[in-house]
Amino acid sequence: MKGTRQVWIAVAVVFCLAVLLPSTATSEDKYVTFGQTEPLTGPLAGFGVPNKRIVEMAIEKINSEGGFKVKGETYKLRVICEDNKNTTEGAVAANNKLIHQDKVKMVMNFPTTPAIASQVVTEQAKVINLIGGLHHEMLGPKKPYSFRHVMDATVTAPAQVKWILKNRPNLKSSWMTGADDASGAAGVDGWNGACKKYGINVLGSDLIGRQVTDFYPILAKILRANPDIIGSNTGDQGALLLKQAREKGYKGQFATPYAASLSWIKTGGAENLEGTLNIGVDATSERVPKGVRDFHAAYVNKFKEEPGAWSDWQTTPPYIIAQAMAKAGTIDDVEKIKAVLESESFKTPWGEIRYGGAKKFGIPRQLLIPIFISTVKNGKIAVLDRIDGAEIEKLMSE
Fold it and tell me: Mutual orientation of helices 182-198 and 153-167 as an angle, nearest 10°?
């Protein structure tokens, strides 16, 4: 009896241990974590929150399809997203936390101001930074760990302006405005540079504080010059400027060197912004890659709203991260991963794409994705033409 009782006690102890202790089964998933910072609060949360969501959707899809293999081991992705508040201080704090506390080897940073600030942290720490910023000075040999998956106006505006010259030859002069920050300045400089290069007369330009809502004094100056094109950024501020231009009687062409969104069109009024040229994505157009259209549709189905103007571009980094580690044969050797990023191509919802732009930036760090020449039509974005990465790189080399 005593022996039987000891056996049952032993069984009970084993059972309790099995319940209380974590599983050590070899089938347990292995994860690689990367970081992300977005403006999750403040005036640009309308960009940051959808970006966070769509990155998470891309991760879910990659993981549901089996993850990725590194030297025979299967891994899945996960992300830690921090609020950078669209400030320099917020970006530095968020990146320091991700790198030094969470120990990530790769981060994403959006938009321009926090992305620029993040480079101070990531370059010193030798952490790969997949930036979503719109300033050409973010890329260069002195910033070897920074790779960009969106394009600033010095990259996109040449294609946009050449399209205008070919298809709207009556548009011969321009006045571009932008927000008084890094992305606004880059947009205006890129647009004006392309206009001067290809033959559209730049009559003037302005950088305006994001807090401004009354544009009538600025418009009085612009309208006296009577430009064929008036342009703005694609924040609410830019939409209001164009709306007020119409209210002042301007009948000419509107344009923006950025991606327009449905919320921007709603702010400015569909009737006011009808015909505005931009580089936004119409995710129902056959010119847009099917993978992007599918992600866009899944987002709308899940959240019952359209994603942000830049969200469609945020699908690429998770795919690139997973494939770069698989091709490099490591999850933590940053130098090997960096070498793969600058030399290999990657299969993404945008198709098979690679980093280029070495002639322009001195180092291949610009993701060569298609851009779209689009217009506002009946309150929506309608694609007029598609310009692929190879053509974009050719224009960068001119």
Answer: 40
